[in-house]
Design brief:
One of its GO terms (molecular function) is ATP binding. Pfam families: ABC_tran (PF00005). This is ABC transporter ATP-binding protein. Keywords: ATP-binding, Nucleotide-binding. By secondary structure, this protein is an alpha/beta fold. The chain has a domain at about 5-85 and about 160-250: P-loop containing nucleotide triphosphate hydrolases (Rossmann fold, 3-Layer(aba) Sandwich), CATH 3.40.50.300. About 30% of the residues lie in helices and about 25% in strands. The protein is built from nine helices and twelve strands. It has a six-stranded mixed β-sheet, sandwiched between helices. The chain has a four-stranded antiparallel β-sheet with strand order 2-1-4-5, covered by helices on one side. Helix 4 (about 115-125) runs antiparallel to helix 5 (about 140-155). The longest helix has 14 residues, at about 140-155. It is globular and about 55 Å long. The two termini are about 30 Å apart. The protein binds adenosine-5'-triphosphate.
C-alpha cells in the first residue's frame, strides 16, 4: 500500500498550519515524522487518517483520494493510534475495545463473524496482551493501554498504520518490543516520534517538519544532519551509524538558546 500526500495546505483558526506539504511512503515502508512542538505533525496525521480535510492538496491511499472514499471504506484501509489513550468508559474489557477495530468491516447487521473473532485473537497474541483480555480497560496503566490501542488498530487489518507518539508511556524495553512488532507486521506506517534515536531505529525514511513545511525528507542519516538538528531542533548534535548498524544521536552537553515555536509562513 502506497501513501502519497500531495501539496497539502491546512489552515486552523485563520492561521496557516501546513503549507505545501508533500510526502510519500512506499508499500511496507515505515516513515517517521519528526519536528519540534507545534510544527504540524499531528495536524498532518489528521489529514492522513481523514479526520481533517486539507484546504488544498490531496491525500492518496493506494492511489485513491481519501475524501473520495466513504468514511467506512477509508477506515478499512487506515488505522490510527493517537496520543490520548485515556478516554474509554468504565466497563469495557480489553477484548471488547480491540473488537471495535472490526467495525469498518461489519455489514449492516453489525454482527461479529469468524473473521472478526480471528482478527481479535491474533491481535491479542501479537501484542502479547492475552492475559489481560478480560480486564477493564480503565484499570490499565498508560503503557498497557497503548498496547491495547495498537492491538485494536491491528485487528482493523489496515493497509496503512498512523501512529502519534505511540511510545510515550512505554518503558524502554516495551518501546523496543513495540517497534519490532510494528516492523514485523509489514504494514506501511507513518509515525510521529519525538525520540530521534527511536525514529532512527524504527524508520526507513524520515520527514522533518518545521513551521508547517517539510524541510528535509529521505534516508535517516540524510535527514539527521548537524545543520538540521541545529536549525530545526535547536540542539548541537550529530547522528552516526555505529558498528552494530544502529544510528544514534549524540547531543552536546550545552543546549542552544531556547527559541520561540515558529509558526507556518503565510502563503
Ligand atoms: N484547532 C486549532 N485551531 C488553531 N490552531 C491549532 C488548532 N489545532 C492545532 N493548532 C495549532 O497548529 C500548530 C500545529 O499543531 P500540531 O498539534 O499539529 O503540532 P505538533 O507538531 O503535533 O506538536 P507537538 O509536538 O507539540 O505535539 C500549533 O501551533 C497548534 O497550536
Amino acid at each position: 500500500m502506497k501513501l502519497t500526500v500531495e501539496q497539502i495546505h491546512v489552515e486552523l483558526g485563520h492561521r496557516p498550519i501546513l503549507h505545501d506539504v508533500h510526502l510519500e511512503a512506499q508499500a511496507g515502508d515505515i516513515v517517521g515524522l519528526i519536528g519540534p512542538n507545534g510544527s504540524g505533525k499531528s495536524t498532518l496525521l489528521r489529514t492522513v487518517y481523514r479526520s481533517l480535510r486539507p484546504h488544498r492538496g490531496v491525500v492518496r491511499v493506494d492511489g485513491d483520494d481519501v475524501w473520495a472514499l466513504s468514511a467506512r471504506s477509508a477506515a478499512r484501509r487506515t488505522a490510527a493510534v493517537l496520543q490520548d489513550a485515556s478516554g474509554h468508559p468504565t466497563g469495557m474489557s480489553v477484548a471488547e475495545i480491540i473488537a471495535l477495530g472490526r467495525t469498518p468491516h461489519h455489514g449492516l447487521l453489525g454482527r461479529d463473524g469468524a473473521d472478526d473473532h480471528q482478527a481479535v485473537e491474533s491481535a491479542l497474541d501479537s501484542c502479547a496482551i492475552r492475559h489481560m483480555a478480560e480486564r477493564d480497560v480503565t484499570s490499565l496503566s498508560g503503557g498497557e493501554r497503548q498496547r491495547v490501542l495498537l492491538a485494536r488498530a491491528l485487528a482493523q487489518q489496515p493497509r496503512l498504520l498512523v501512529l502519534d507518539e505511540l511510545t510515550n508511556h512505554l518503558d524502554i524495553r516495551a518501546r523496543f518490543e513495540l517497534l519490532e512488532l510494528i516492523r514485523s507486521t509489514g504494514i506501511t506506517t507513518l509515525a510521529v516520534l519525538h525520540d530521534l534515536d527511536l525514529a532512527a531505529r524504527l524508520c526507513d525514511h524520515l520527514v522533518a517538519l518545521h513551521a508547517g513545511q517539510v524541510v528535509a525528507a529521505g534516508p535517516v542519516l540524510d535527514v539527521l544532519t548537524p545543520g538540521l538538528l541545529r536549525e530545526v531542533f535547536g540542539v548541537a548534535a550529530t547522528a552516526e551509524r555505529h558498528a552494530d548498524g544502529i544510528v544514534r544521536v549524540t547531543y552536546a552537553a550545552q543546549p542552544l538558546a531556547l527559541e520561540p515555536i515558529r509558526e507556518a509562513k503565510v502563503s
